[in-house]
Write a structure and sequence with these properties.
By secondary structure, this protein is of the alpha/beta class. It has six helices and eight strands, in the order ααββαββαβααβββ.
Length: 199
């Protein structure tokens, strides 16, 4: 059977404002999870990988050169007035080198090839870093409760698997967070936050 292109899937969800699939993590949560003080980024170049509904884009303090990329043109158009430059995810290598890049709630929707490409093609300054959230399975049987659309759009990776992907790129992991656990429907997954720099 024909599968919908990922770009179309996300554009439709943005047009329909489907908050089941879309996220808009607020600035304070990003600061806490990724251990980043956005006030310290004034005058610096910051890349948001995965705009979602714009929760971070709308809240970035003034004085930061804010670039963003997303798979959905619809998502990018919504935040046009709040960012310096916007790019489709396929254009990530065109983005100028940045001091900090954050990728939050994105990689669980990307296959290994796309994860590799995004890490490899993100341009960091020599002193820059990427902070990446990725999901792992605590209880693999939990996947059985997901419907077909969810199963086709969700990817989980152990820390070892994520490390093996990063090892093939031009970046290296310098720190990883302890596991972050959840309850309720998503209690079978956890998160790690990894910080990467150029090799």
């Amino acid at each position: 059977k024909l599968q919908m292109r990922k770009e179309d899937f996300w554009d439709i969800n943005h047009q329909n404002k489907d908050l089941y699939w879309l996220t808009g993590t607020e600035l304070r949560e990003i600061e806490s999870r990724h251990e980043i003080d956005f006030n310290s980024l004034k005058g610096k170049d910051f890349l948001e990988i995965g705009t979602g509904v714009g929760g971070l884009s709308y809240a970035i303090p003034d004085g930061i050169n804010h670039f963003c990329c997303d798979i959905s043109e619809h998502a990018l158009n919504k935040v046009s007035n709040n960012v310096k430059l916007k790019f489709l995810s396929s254009e990530i290598k065109k983005i100028p080198p940045v001091d900090v890049a954050v990728c939050h709630l994105v990689f669980q929707h990307c296959d290994n090839k796309e994860v590799f490409r995004i890490i490899e093609e993100t341009n960091l300054k020599n002193s820059g870093f990427m902070s990446i959230q990725f999901a792992f399975l605590i209880d693999p049987s939990g996947v059985n409760s997901l419907n077909e659309i969810e199963q086709n759009n969700l990817f989980f990776r152990s820390l070892e698997k994520f490390q093996s992907i990063v090892d093939k790129t031009n970046k290296q992991i310098i720190t990883t967070s302890p596991p972050i656990y959840f309850s309720g429907r998503w209690g079978f997954i956890g998160w790690h936050i990894a910080r990467l720099i150029n090799k």
